[in-house]
Design goal:
- The structure is a single chain.
- With about 90 residues, this protein is an alpha+beta fold.
- The chain has one domain.
- Helix content is about 40%, strand content about 15%.
Length: about 90
């Protein structure tokens, strides 16, 4: 899936942050996110694309999307995520 050409111009000069869904059993949203990143950059957007694999929620399950990112421990947030996600 790609971003409609007519919509791309609306992203010029805007910051876009992509948090792709990652679920190895169903699909890898990271591939789609990289395509969107290339399209958006080509349209003049400032793009940050985040890789969430390797992160774990408080219950020990893997982080697979932005919702899950809200469930990481305070320690993991401070040690691994604070700088890269919130400048």
């Amino acid at each position: 899936m790609s971003i409609h050409r007519g919509a791309l111009r609306l992203f010029q000069g805007k910051r876009v942050r992509i948090f792709p869904h990652h679920d190895a059993r169903r699909f890898n949203g990271f591939d789609a996110a990289r395509r969107w990143e290339a399209q958006l950059r080509g349209a003049g957007a400032i793009v940050d694309c985040f890789e969430l694999t390797g992160l774990t929620r408080n219950d020990g399950q893997a982080v697979s999307d932005l919702n899950d990112l809200c469930l990481v421990s305070h320690e993991q947030w401070q040690e691994e995520l604070r700088g890269p996600i919130l400048p």
